[in-house]
Amino acid sequence: MKLTALIILGLGLSVAGFAQDKPGRDNTAIIIAGKPLTYADSGLVKQLFFSALREKTVDNYKLASEFFNRVLQIDPANDASMFELANLEKMQNNQKSSRVLLERAVTVNPNNEWYWIALADSYEKSNDIGKLENVFNELIRINPDKPDYYYDKANAFTIQKKYDEALKLYDKVEELAGPSDDLLVNRQKVYLKQGNINKAAAALEKAIATDPGQLKYYLMLAEVYNSNNLNDKATAVLERAKKLSPNNGTLHLALADIYREKKNYEASFHELEIAFAIPDIDVEQKIRIILGYIPKFPEANAKASALALSKIIAATHPGSNKAFAIYGDMLLQNEKLKEAKEAYKKSIELNSQAYIVHEQLVRIELGENDYDGAIKDGENALSYFPNQAWMNYLVGIAWQQKKDFNKAVSYFQNATSLEAQDKDLLSQTYSALGDCYHALSDNKKSDAAYDKALTYNPDNAFTLNNYAYYLSLRNEQLVKAAQMSKRSNELQVNTASFEDTYAWILFKQKNYSEAKLWIEKSLIHDKSASSVKTEHYGDIMYLLGNVDAAVQQWIKAKTQGAASPVLDRKINEKKYIE
Question: Does residue 16 surpass a pLDDT of 70?
Answer without folding.
Answer: no
